[in-house]
Amino acid sequence: MTILTDDECGRSGSSEEGLTGLSNSKIFKDFEHVIQSMPIEINNLHVRLKNEHILKGVNMRIERKTLLLGPNGSGKTTLIKAVLGIINIDDGDIIIDGRSIKVIKKWIHVMSTNLIDAYSILPEDIKSIVKLYEDLLDLDVGTFNELVEMFNIRDVLSKTFYEISTGQKKLTALSLALAARGRYMVLDEPFEDVDPGRKKKVLDLILSTDSIVMLSTHELWMIKLFRDWDCYIMFSGRAYGPIRVSDLLEARLVRGHHDDALLTIDVAGEKISIVKGTDKGVPLSELSSMEKMFEVLYEAPVAR
């Protein structure tokens, strides 16, 4: 499939009222070029790193905004790197815009990311990286500058990624992702290491974009704000789903297999079922992070 230019695609409206003070901002007007995109299809994906089998037959179809939930070490970041073409695939395939990632060469307005590895491999200062991505990917410098002003991190521009704090890296990489105006936006733990005051701004920006977002996180405190998103859950290199976030918020975690489960997940060699309409188990909405799911193995009753 040929990737269309902005003029060929036409324009669509953008939801821009969610961020106070930025409703008429160029940040959101630049997203008006986003078109109806084909889904990202991940088919039987296997990835091995240093002889360790990290991703074990992952299957996903990302056709709308989607959360990727899982504890640290579950394979979320490895999956994101595979989707971005940063690491090699051992088996399976990833289809983006109807084409295998193995043959995609041109990423302009197709994919954007906040993955720090995509930028920190460059030794230049951030101002030079912005210029490079402007030339290579048509990154909108005006949008980027507006975002760094909003996050109050303009002093990072003269520094390399290695010279700034972890929180500044997160905000700078997110600003680059938004300014790249990709039809697909792949975000790795965008709330982690961001202070509470800026975390709300990050959330509002993500909720306001028209891009198809694939967002990984291990935090559960904010999923109620993504009620209309899809969701996959990752454990030990395997993906389970999709499931609507609204269903997750009404579900409970029950040990063992349950015939009426929305999903049944293998956790540390045991089964955990995600079940609606039961008073057994632990409400998922009460957990603060995906790591807390391990506690369900010891606290929740076994399904009958």
Keywords:
2 domains, 6-stranded mixed β-sheet, alpha/beta, single chain, 14 strands, Rossmann fold, disordered N terminus, 4-stranded antiparallel β-sheet, 10 helices, 304 residues, globular
Structure write-up:
The chain is an alpha/beta fold and 304 residues long. The protein folds into 2 domains: 226 residues, Rossmann fold, CATH 3.40.50; 54 residues, no CATH class. Helices cover 27% and strands 26% of the residues. The protein has 10 helices and 14 strands. The strands form 3 sheets. The protein has a 6-stranded mixed sheet, sandwiched between helices. A 4-stranded antiparallel sheet has the order 2-1-4-5, with helices on one face. Strand 12 and strand 13 form a beta hairpin. The radius of gyration is 20 Å and the shape is globular. It starts with 5 loop residues before the first helix and ends in a 5-residue tail after the last helix.
CATH fold-level topology of the largest domain: Rossmann fold
CATH architecture term of the largest domain: 3-Layer(aba) Sandwich
Name given to the CATH homologous superfamily of the largest domain:
P-loop containing nucleotide triphosphate hydrolases
Please indicate the count of domains. Answer: 2
| Coarse structural class | alpha/beta
Q: What is the chain-wise order of helices and strands?
A: HHEEEHEEEHHHHEHEEEHEEEEH
**Cα gyration radius (Å):** 20 Å
